[in-house]
Amino acid sequence: MILVTGGAGYIGSHAVLELLQAGHEVLVLDNLCNSSRTALARVERIAGRPVQFVRGDVRNRSMLTALFAAYPVTAVLHFAGLKAVGESVREPLRYYETNVSGSIALCQAMAEAGIFKLVFSSSATVYGDAQQMPITEEAPTGQPTNPYGQSKLMAENVLHGLAASDPRWSIGLMRYFNPIGAHESGLIGEDPNGIPNNLLPYMLQVAVGRRKSLSVFGSDYPTPDGTGIRDYIHVVDLAKGHLKALERLEQVQGVSVWNLGTGLGHSVLEMVYAFEKVLGRALPHSFEPRRPGDIAQCWSDPSKALAELGWRAERDLTCMLADAWRWQSQNPHGYSVPQKAAADLA
Ligand code: NAD
Ligand code: WQD
């Protein structure tokens, strides 16, 4: 059985679905602080198989001990964490506590239970403002400029130290570039709380009429069209990478680092134009100053994951945007039922 922490969340729910479809038994641990139980109900519906669910906090060591005593867990995918950059600047301790201390509590309980396979959700943010594109795993980890990024780098360092101390550990550090998109069914997807920080969720909410216009942050970057460039990757491709990592961790010990990206960079304006094609209409947008802390460009060299995991991203930008739009247009308010619809149902 595979334990998926944060399995009700955006990336976790897609990984749970892939695990179920590959025949694994899955246990989800999530405190639902940024997700909904509905996501897992939908995952079960798509897979036609049940998911075990425990509502709990990854920082709760004694609960974790009881969990490992009660379920035959053999490996852990650790998605549970907080991820909003701006919030992390305002509430740094909450971010360090969840992302660093939560990971430590999890590893302590795993070791106690004799479980030593861990796949960790890291981020390209650990590279900081990288000087060379594309970014390989050998690129120096930079100085992330916010507590969120710092917490991911700190957790990576904790895991390096842990693996060096005990050869039984097999740990995959998965450095995600920019996950977007949704499962092709349109039943599960990203459902941010409040005003979205990330580009695609914001564009989707403009398209569905929840927001007026997209602000394009910065048009004076040293890029061909002046807007920021990122490596957007389909969340289903990302989820599949975790299954490949699990397989690989059966064969290798210590820490392995893998970039999960497409190797292609797209500017904000390219994203807007590609999305307009999918929509069949214009997306209102205006140019605004740069967002503080943003970098000009960031894209991956994903060849290590291809060589070692036999994994590569297969879904192109049009597919990412079409799948994301299917999810958003079928679920304009995400997993929550808006009040009027709830009244209609009653
Ligand atoms: P998400 O917020 O949708 O999912 C995280 C899940 O963890 C949520 O279901 C939340 O309820 C749960 N959670 C949070 N704190 C918890 C706690 N203390 N105990 C138990 N559960 C808890 O985010 P996501 O986009 O699916 O991200 C998953 C992981 O990937 C995170 O660790 C995130 O930092 C990392 N990551 C995300 C991105 C991205 O752009 N989405 C990029 C790089 C890395
Ligand atoms: C992408 C591009 C913006 C919103 C963040 C985190 C990173 C990782 C992924 C977790 C940039 C521009 C955005 C908007 C815009 N998360 N933009 N208007 O900044 O690459 O990464 O999410 O690990 O740690 O920092 O992603 O989607 O916020 O921005 O013009 O309303 O879109 O300036 O060029 P980013 P993003």
TrEMBL record:
<dbReference type="InterPro" id="IPR001509">
    <property type="entry name" value="Epimerase_deHydtase"/>
</dbReference>
<dbReference type="Pfam" id="PF01370">
    <property type="entry name" value="Epimerase"/>
</dbReference>
<dbReference type="InterPro" id="IPR036291">
    <property type="entry name" value="NAD(P)-bd_dom_sf"/>
</dbReference>
<dbReference type="GO" id="GO:0003978">
    <property type="term" value="F:UDP-glucose 4-epimerase activity"/>
</dbReference>
<keyword id="KW-0413">Isomerase</keyword>
<dbReference type="InterPro" id="IPR005886">
    <property type="entry name" value="UDP_G4E"/>
</dbReference>
<comment type="similarity">
    <text>Belongs to the NAD(P)-dependent epimerase/dehydratase family.</text>
</comment>
<feature type="domain" description="NAD-dependent epimerase/dehydratase">
    <location>
        <begin position="2"/>
        <end position="261"/>
    </location>
</feature>
<keyword id="KW-0119">Carbohydrate metabolism</keyword>
<keyword id="KW-0520">NAD</keyword>
<comment type="subunit">
    <text>Homodimer.</text>
</comment>
<comment type="pathway">
    <text>Carbohydrate metabolism; galactose metabolism.</text>
</comment>
<protein>
    <recommendedName>
        <fullName>UDP-glucose 4-epimerase</fullName>
        <ecNumber>5.1.3.2</ecNumber>
    </recommendedName>
</protein>
<keyword id="KW-0299">Galactose metabolism</keyword>
